[in-house]
Amino acid sequence: MHFTRLLFASLFFVSAICHADTWTDPAVAGKEDPAFLIQGEYGVAESGQAWGAHVIAMGEGNFDAYLLEGGLPGLGYTREKARTKLTGKSAEGKTSLQSEDGKLTATIAGGKITLQRDGKPLAELARVERKSSTLGEKPPAGAIVLFDGKNLDEWVMEKDGSPADWIVGEGYMQVPPKGEGVGGYIKTKREFGDVQLHVEFATPEKVEGNSQGRGNSGVFLLGGYEIQVLDSYENESYADGQASALYGYKPPLVNASRPPGKWQTYDIIFESPKWDSEGNLLKRSRVTVLHNGVLTHHYQDSLGPSGHKRVANYNQVRDKGPIKLQNHSNPTRFRNIWVRELDLSANE
Ligand code: MG
């Protein structure tokens, strides 16, 4: 009896330690579980390639991989081309996967994936890390730094204006774990209208949940217009709910997502809606978004502040509002956030 209790207590303790802080930190995750060193993109970061591959660590040594005809997304693969799923496991330093029909097999070892079709060599692809062209972009003259990795002085809780309770780590902020008395959206103390906004984010390195439950957060302009943050690296969900979607309204032009745990960028140009003195809408909001340097929305209008399972409408008469970040109970991280107020009146 005592032994059983002790065993259970020990197992719980070991499990608690093993799961501590493995969510988002690549260095810690890689040390505690080598699977995170295998997860990622494989291929060449140039167009004109025959194949690319995406590998995802699904936990407990299990892996999913997708072989992409034409190279990595953005460099050759398009949805008309072949995308074949392989599944497998790691054992003794080697990861072996195969397609459902058994025709495609893959081995991952030493930072490479070796592919075979019908037992014959098909391709050997090295792990590659593609970085956004605007990663680490410095704030331009006149910009307001909303988060420089040190403190949440520019932010408060949305619900009551109290100090923002999100976690601040070394150079990043993170959505806190679900729990009583903590959590909730945060918003800027200042209000903004027409802006250029730079945001860097990373969804959790450790893949948990699926669809809207994987790395969900969001960047809201004018307090209500969400540009979705989600782990959309081989994570199927509804089209206008994926990363970089204008939530509930417009899917992005392309899926420019990077693997879980990698820093990604949004560069957003937002024009707030314009109203007459009686509160009649004169002009809808417009937004242009670059996700990892790739255009995902071009001067796109919207139907108003976004919402879950409802059609938006312009029911809030405002042309200035806070920038908000969503707490969706997934430990997503943010860093390097700055905003530049735009005077577009000269264009009107
Ligand atoms: Mg969201």
Give an account of the 3D structure.
The chain is mainly beta and 348 residues long. It folds into 2 domains: 46-128, no CATH class; 144-341, Jelly Rolls, CATH 2.60.120. It contains 3 helices and 23 strands. It has helices at 2-19, 26-32, 35-38; strands at 40-42, 51-59, 62-69, 83-91, 94-99, 104-109, 112-117, 120-128, 144-147, 155-157, 167-169, 172-174, 186-188, 195-202, 217-221, 225-229, 264-271, 274-275, 281-283, 286-291, 294-301, 324-325, 333-341. The strands form 4 sheets. An 8-stranded antiparallel barrel has the order 1-2-3-4-5-6-7-8. Strands 9, 11, 12, 14, 17, 20, 21 and 23 form an 8-stranded antiparallel β-sheet that branches. A hairpin with a 2-residue loop joins β2 (51-59) and β3 (62-69). The longest helix has 18 residues, at 2-19. Bound molecules: magnesium ion (MG). Magnesium ion binds next to β15 and β16.
Uncertain stretches: 1-22
Identify the overall geometry: globular
**Could you tell me the number of beta strands?**
23
Q: What would you report as the Rg, rounded to the nearest angstrom?
A: 22 Å
Report the total helices: 3
Say which CATH homologous superfamily of the largest domain is assigned: Exo-inulinase, domain 1
Percent helix, as a range, is under 10%
- Overall mean pLDDT stands at 89
Biggest sheet statistics: 8 strands, antiparallel, barrel
How much of the sequence lies in strands comes to 35-45%
CATH topology of the largest domain: Jelly Rolls
> What is the CATH domain class of the largest domain?
Mainly Beta
N-to-C series of helices and strands: HHHEEEEEEEEEEEEEEEEEEEEEEE
Q: Report the CATH architecture of the largest domain.
A: Sandwich
